[in-house]
Design brief:
Radius of gyration: 17 Å
Bound molecules: adenosine-5'-triphosphate
Oligomer: single chain
Strand order of the largest sheet: 3-2-1-4-5-6
Largest sheet: 6 strands, parallel
Shape: globular
Helix content: 25-40%
Number of helices: 10
Amino acid sequence: MINDALAPLLAVYGGTFDPVHYGHLRPVEALAQLAQLSRVIIMPNNVPPHRPQPVANSLQRKEMVALAIADRPLFELDERELRRSTPSYTVDTLNAIRQEKGARQPLAFIIGQDSLLTLPQWHQYQRLPQLCHLLVCRRPGYALTMSQPEHQVWLNQHLTQDIHELHRRPAGCIYLADTPLWDISATLIRQRLEQHQTCDDLLPPAVADYIQRQGLYQHTANA
Ligand code: ATP
């Protein structure tokens, strides 16, 4: 039977998650309300090409994400990047998902404002809106406009505030979501843990317990 109705918007959230924290989870939960997302695929990176290597290994980062989302039905873990042995450029991953799901599937990639600002340094970033929408969560301390005028022009060409566009079109829009600010980073958590400071309000208790059991982030100076 041919189904002419569009499939629900598939939203993918990539990151290093070294470790996963409330600054990852809560903005995306708020985004899901604003953009009417019923499910978010959370996808830990294997070897992020534009960043230093993670402190926790792939298995540990995957297990922390699994613990963090165990009581958060919005999220579903996707291990595809962790199974790869080669660097996983976002554009390649999204291209693979696009091939799997077909040209009509509404597809989105979720990023924070800091990632939007550095997007022009990503491999083939201009292909991203051809493959998917970009949904951007706010993050404290990061400018709301691009530093280079030509990048702002590029951004403006794709901006939408109409969430129905995200559900109706397969790709092509950038949505800057007015999500609440959480001033949390994995770097801050690694630094606090190294200094034996608590991180109670920064990440889920199950993740904190796991970090302690594994002895993670005890000596990560400059990581
Ligand atoms: P690190 O401190 O190690 O650089 P991070 O906390 O920025 O890590 P990542 O795993 O690199 O976390 O980020 C994955 C995604 O989550 C990115 O798109 C990033 O912009 C977003 N993100 C991370 N922290 C926040 C936050 N506090 N608010 C909004 N978005 C965030």
